Amino acid sequence: MSSSPTPTSPERMGDRPHAAAVTLPFAAIVLAMLPAVLDQTILATALPVIATDLGSLSDVSWVVTAYIVAAAASTPLWGKLGDRHGRKRLLQVALAGFVVASASCSVAQDITQLIVFRLVQGAAAGGLMTLAMATVGDLVAPRQRGRYQGYIAATFAVATVVGPLLGGVLVDNAGWRWVFLVNLPLGAAALAGVGMRLPAPPTEHPERPLDVAGAALLAGATSALMLTCIWGGGRYAWPSAPILALITATVALSVGLVARERRAADPIVPFHLPCSWAPPRCSPSPCSYRCSCRRPPGPARPRPGCCWSRRCWGSRSRPPSPDGASPAPAATSASQSRAWR
């Protein structure tokens, strides 16, 4: 018996974009995120040399702390700005800021300058990491996003292993300033790739103003929490006054953030999302008002991806109302309800 190949529906073909249309833009996204990921680990082997050259070992710990705190505090704001003004544009801004901050770190003359430049670099790195993950949603279909985000997670893992090794090689052979200079060619290549290959979906002009107060409260609460976790039990004892002050600030700023976001027109953190879940609705087919996911005969359970349910099957023969509301489900018997579950 000869089996004919199963035809591929246009919908399924639309979910699988051509590899050439995805590979180059996705490579540009990974290349844009790579400097930010490398900078989290590449500096570890250079810290003793930086401490000897610019300051004491206790002061040089701020070089790492400033980067981590700035990246964590700025991540939600970058995501919100990307939703409002387009992710490609914001990704280019974050990448340019990261390259400029890296060049500034390489020419720092004292530990204070290096800490300030690392603070700016961390804020830009928060945008690179969050916008790279969000841009994947604009690039590929929903059913493929998990695979491509897995590639990004693999990039994180590889950079975690390669970063300290690369930092040690650069420090031993070229000097600690090349730990920052190595980001310049990577950033330039990423800027070129993002500008030429990454598509820019149209974005609507935001009608509501940006929630600046909410962004400030969120950044303050995140920074206080990060400092509590970094300093607690190390630099300061947990019952000490600085740690207790940071915990108090974290709680106070978090309470203020919740109160602010509940009243904001366009909140940075929409707390209503976890409470706004709605059950899946049945979509009618274009030629009739029957359910597009029909219930198979008998008491069989639905196949993965099929949307039929008691609500869907009960309303399959009912046309939608003129105002677009979902039709009320038809009455069903107890035996049908048990068979459809």
Q: What's the helix and strand layout?
A:
Layout (H helix, E strand, L loop, with lengths): L9 H5 L4 H20 L8 H8 L2 H29 L1 H20 L4 H29 L2 H32 L4 H4 L1 H15 L14 H20 L9 H23 L46 H5 L19 H7 L1
Briefly say what this structure is.
The relative contact order is 0.11.
| End-to-end separation | 37 Å
* CATH-level-4 superfamily name of the largest domain: MFS general substrate transporter like domains
Helical content, roughly?
55-70%
State Rg: 26 Å
CATH class of the largest domain: Mainly Alpha
Mean pLDDT figure: 75
Please indicate the percent range of residues in DSSP E strands (runs of 2 or more): under 5%
Structural domains: how many: 3
Number of helices: 13
* SS-based class: mainly alpha
Shape: globular
Query: How is the biggest beta sheet arranged?
Result: none
Element order: H for helix, E for strand: HHHHHHHHHHHHH
CATH architecture of the largest domain: Up-down Bundle
| CATH topology (fold) name of the largest domain | Growth Hormone, Chain: A
Low-confidence stretches: 1-17, 278-296, 302-322, 324-341
Number of strands: 0
Structural features, described:
This protein has three domains: 19-199, MFS general substrate transporter like domains (Growth Hormone, Chain: A), CATH 1.20.1250.20; 211-277; 282-341, no CATH class. 30% of the residues are buried. The protein has helices at residues 10-14, 19-38, 47-54, 57-85, 87-106, 111-139, 142-173, 178-181, 183-197, 212-231, 241-263, 310-314, 334-340. By secondary structure, it is an all-alpha fold. Residues 1-17, 278-296, 302-322 and 324-341 have low confidence and may be disordered. The two termini are 37 Å apart.
